[in-house]
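Sample entry (154 residues):
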Amino acid sequence: PFSYQGRDASSDIKSMPLQCSPRILETFMQSRAFSGWSRSKKSSEQASEYRIGKLTYRPTTRELETPSGMQRLSPKEGKLLELLCESKNDLLPRSKALNLIWKDDNYFTARSMDVYIAKLRKILKEEPNAKIINIHGEGFRLMTQGKKESIKAS
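Predicted structure, serialized as C-alpha cells:
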C-alpha cells in the first residue's frame, strides 16, 4: 500500500493518511474531485488589483489606495467591493453577494449587506466618477462615468 500525507500546507485535510495502491492514488489525484479541493485555483483567478478611476483596490491585502492615503477594508467590505469590481458596470445580483459573503440570503443578512454598501459608498466618494447604484429588487452596480473599461483588473 501507498500512504499519502496531504497535499500542501493550505489544504483542507492536513496530514490525513490515505491507504491505497499507487494506481488508485494516481486516478484519485487526476480526478475532478481532487482538483476541486485545491484553493490555489481560486486565488489564481483573482485579479491582483482593480483600478476604479483614481482608486486602486488590492483584494489580497484588502487595501484601497485613495488620493488621501491607504485604507484597509474589513473582510466583508473587501469581498463585496471585489464582487462589484468583477461585475464591472453590470448587475451584481443581491442573492449572489449574500450567498458568497454571508452564506445565507435572508432579511437580516440583506440589511447587513445594505450597511456595507453604505460604507463602500462613503469610501468611494473620493472618486467622483464611481458610484454604487441600487437596482430595486435585483442587486447593485458599480458604475463609472465614461468608458465601460474604467474598472480594470490587473
